[in-house]
Design brief:
Order of helices and strands: EHEHEHEHEHEHEHEEEEEEEEEHHE
Structural class: alpha/beta
CATH topology of the largest domain: Dihydrodipicolinate Reductase, domain 2
Helix content: 25-40%
Distance between the termini: 14 Å
Number of strands: 17
Oligomer: single chain
Number of domains: 2
Bound molecules: nicotinamide-adenine-dinucleotide
Strand order of the largest sheet: 16-15-14-13-7-12-11-8-17
Radius of gyration: 20 Å
Largest sheet: 9 strands, mixed
């Protein structure tokens, strides 16, 4: 087994690229060789900021033989197209969420990767963080008995007040479900396994939207995908879940995720973060207990899933933030929208294998 760092090419140098490029330096098994963006100036600026040897076009990056993994940080509607080009060029891919915006393009990515014997990874990797792995350990050890239910709530007013280019949040592939659903659903699925049946009720509530961030302050966005959605989920393991995802409400006091078992309840920390407070109450208790985190990676460790996949490439072991899980999440997210539009339950055909738990007791930066 070679211990050489895995060479990474980053496509998409917008907002989220900074934290990936910063954190990649903390994993000895990652080496970012090149960055590319449609906007060449952005790629150049990121290369300078983070000392990446090369800023180039997407085409040039894909031709670089030394690059083993393409890290796809573009916008949702081009995720699948970039992933397919990267696989065709012989690269493994790790992509930001959502995995794709249609099931057919998501499936094409998985099929192409299987044929080419390449790995597919997908954000979010917050599920590998210390907060969420601690919850998983508690559930797996039976601390709350048999899981019977879960809730997931993400309600806010949207992103046009702060994101410099917020249009994609309100087009197909955006919306609160496709944007934030991956965090909540990946986490709940990592904890409870796949969903077999669901129902959804979805609406477009605020349309048009007026941008108040710079540089597009005052411009309007036509909203083309639901900005408020409620759903129910039947898990294959027997639990029943409730989800609300909204970009249309002024404020919200609900917990982010809770898991209910026959013997107790766990309050799960923010799935858009790695650490946070895990709280538990058992049957008969009056007070909640703060549970100490049993795993590392509690700060913003975006790139952890990529580093884990890079380790898998070198060792042959399975990786954890898989395309298979991301496709199941996509299938479920679209299922909520379809169920609402078609006025009926959706039987979820896809599934995934629950990834292995993270190892405890290793220093940050070391995966095995
Ligand atoms: N911004 C966040 O806080 C955040 C957090 C987590 C995940 N994400 C996800 O990360 C992805 C990127 O988000 P962002 O906020 O960085 O967006 P962004 O708009 O700031 O950046 C996207 C970049 O991709 C480039 N791009 C678009 N199409 C391209 C193509 N075909 N080829 C090459 N480059 C292309 C754009 O020019 C832009 O620089 C999204 O999928 C989003 O859901 C964002």
């Amino acid at each position: 087994m070679s211990d050489n760092p895995v060479k990474i090419g980053v496509i998409g140098c917008g907002n989220i690229s900074a934290i990936y490029l910063k954190n990649a330096k903390c994993f000895p098994n990652l080496q970012v060789e090149a960055v590319a963006d449609l906007d060449k100036a952005r790629a150049k600026a990121r290369a300078q900021e983070f000392g990446v040897p090369k800023a180039c076009s997407v085409r040039t990056l894909l031709k670089m033989e030394e690059i083993e993994v393409v890290l796809n940080l573009t916008i949702p509607k081009v995720h699948a197209k970039i992933n397919l080009s990267a696989i065709k060029a012989g690269k493994h891919v790790y992509t930001e969420k959502p995995f794709a915006i249609t099931r057919s393009e998501g499936k094409r990515v998985l099929e192409a990767a299987t044929q080419a014997k390449r790995l597919v990874g997908c954000a979010p990797d917050t599920i590998l963080g210390g907060g969420h792995q601690t919850v998983r350990k508690l559930i797996d050890e039976g601390a709350i008995g048999k899981p019977l239910g879960a809730t997931a709530f993400m309600l806010c007013r949207g992103h046009e007040t702060w994101h410099p280019d917020p249009e994609f949040y309100y087009k197909p592939g955006g919306g609160p479900m496709m944007d934030m659903g991956p965090y909540y659903l990946s986490d709940i699925m990592m904890l409870l396994g796949p969903v077999k049946r669901l129902s959804g009720s979805a609406q477009i509530v605020i349309n048009p939207r007026t941008i108040s961030s710079q540089p597009r302050n005052g411009q309007q966005i036509q909203v083309e995908t639901p900005d408020h959605l409620t759903g129910t989920m039947d898990f294959a393991g027997g639990a029943v879940g409730t989800i609300i995802m909204s970009f249309a409400v002024a404020g919200c006091n609900l917990p982010r995720i809770e898991v209910y078992g026959t013997e107790g309840t766990i309050c799960v920390p923010d799935p858009n973060a790695f650490g946070g407070q895990v709280r538990m109450i058992k049957r008969g208790e009056k007070e909640w207990t703060d549970v100490p985190l049993a795993f590392p990676y509690v700060e913003n460790w975006r790139a952890l899933g990529l580093a884990d996949m890079a380790r898998a490439i070198r060792t042959g072991r399975p990786h954890r933030a898989t395309g298979q899980l991301a496709y199941h999440v996509l299938d479920v997210m679209l299922g909520f929208l379809d169920s609402s539009a078609k006025n009926r339950h959706y039987q979820v055909p896809s599934t995934f294998e629950r990834p292995a738990a993270m190892p405890a007791g290793l220093p940050e930066g070391q995966l095995d």
